[in-house]
Amino acid sequence: MCKFKKVLQGKELYLDIPHQLISEDIRTLLELEVEEFSTVFGCEVYFQKPPAYAPRWIFRPRHQGMDAAELEWSPGTKALISYADNEDDALQTFSLLHTLARTDKNSVEYSPPCTTQEAAYLIRDEVLNTFPSFELRKINPVQWAKQFDEPAPKDWNEFKYWAQKLIAQLQDAHTSIIENRFSGFVPPYRGRLYETGIILDRVPFNSDADQAGVAPGWTVRVEDSLRWLTTTGATPQQYRQIAARKALTVNHDYQRFTAFSPNGSQQISWDENPQQLILRDIVDVIQMDDCITYIGLRSFSPVPGLLSLFKDVCASSSEYSHMLLDLRGNVGGSIVLARELQSLFLREKTQIGSASFTDGCGHLGPVFARYTCPSSNARWLGTLEILIDSMTYSATEDFILGLKGLSHVSVRGERTGGGSGRPRSVPIGPDLSLRISTAITFEKGGSPVEHFGIEPDVAEPLS
Hints:
Layout: H1 3-8, E1 12-15, H2 24-32, H3 34-41, E2 44-46, E3 56-60, E4 70-74, E5 79-83, H4 87-95, H5 97-102, E6 107-109, H6 116-130, H7 141-146, H8 156-168, E7 176-179, E8 190-194, E9 197-202, H9 208-212, E10 219-220, H10 225-231, H11 239-248, E11 255-260, E12 267-272, H12 279-282, E13 283-287, E14 292-297, H13 306-315, E15 322-326, H14 335-343, E16 350-358, E17 364-372, E18 383-388, H15 395-400, E19 409-413, E20 424-429, E21 432-436, E22 439-442, E23 458-459
Parallel strand pairs: 1-2, 1-3, 3-5, 14-15, 15-18, 18-19, 19-23
Antiparallel strand pairs: 4-5, 4-6, 7-21, 8-9, 9-10, 10-11, 11-12, 13-14, 16-17, 16-22, 20-21
Helix pairs in contact: 10-11
Protein name: Tail specific protease domain-containing protein
Organism: Rothia terrae
Domain Tail specific protease: 273-461
């Protein structure tokens, strides 16, 4: 039994986060995912000031000489202390919770190991104790972990490639080795990566590639395609598309791409420059006639104006209105925003599926049914038709959960990507972090979303 459960089972723990330490969006996200904390602690968790002598999670500034955020457990006083100076520090201590649960130590800090061999053992132990879906994916955890018995490469660059290949075997786009120094800008193209390059499926009108003369069916040259293919973890239905997305990511001030026409007679190069997303980059609204509204939503990124746009559209609806909501290629974003938009299409308190979280000690916790209520402001009064495909993923699947199956909602297209996510992050080396999924979400009928995705009501390929 994990150290917290030995002391806290059957009790209540109070999470007292100073309001100035984290944003309201982060606080809302933590409250939405309170079952994750309950699973690790083995008790009910409340976001409020604790009564006298009650178990608590409190926050204090870092001590002088502390080089990193730290999480400390005092079993005698039943107090968990986050030493954090800012929001980033606080979030790092949340990620440390699973690490502290599985170790025999009473404090852990958010700092990387010194050697690649230590990093290898850390990756193995964190994944074995946190990753929720070995069984779903029919992966033997013991066999997977045996690969870490071999000496790890001593050079950090070689180690990164070695570790990425091992993590990719888990087939989860949320679980990966990431380079912290790259934030990454993803151009708006879709394609599938093969050893010969990326065959483009989508080139938006007026994008840089479109202006240069590149079209769907063209092949983008990729340096070392095999490396991307062997280090990409994803479900089978989206694997080549996720690999293409990673290979297209721009991690510098600009990146030059070269593409070839299907018959090889033309070659075109163009530059992509990272840019801040604005509203028109992620959403299109087309009034098709008096009753039908088409909305293409490419991301749940919380850009200014997105929620207001949806509320305005809903405010003008009637019982005769029909919305065609195109979520193909939408790989997610903010769970908080997904829930806010979801509430616009609900008509009563609704079960939106369920979730189970890992406890940090290698076990899945209980399955929690999840409910939400309709928006108290504008609501969509008509019918809703949602278009999905294998790149409909992560927070976008959370949006669909609870809507699918309602009498005024239909879902059409292809099976979604299958990613429950709720990843935590652990530093493993210089500018390297391990990101690990912690949850499995389920549809209302009990079918897991993780790995298998959400099946449409009407299955058909959508061009």
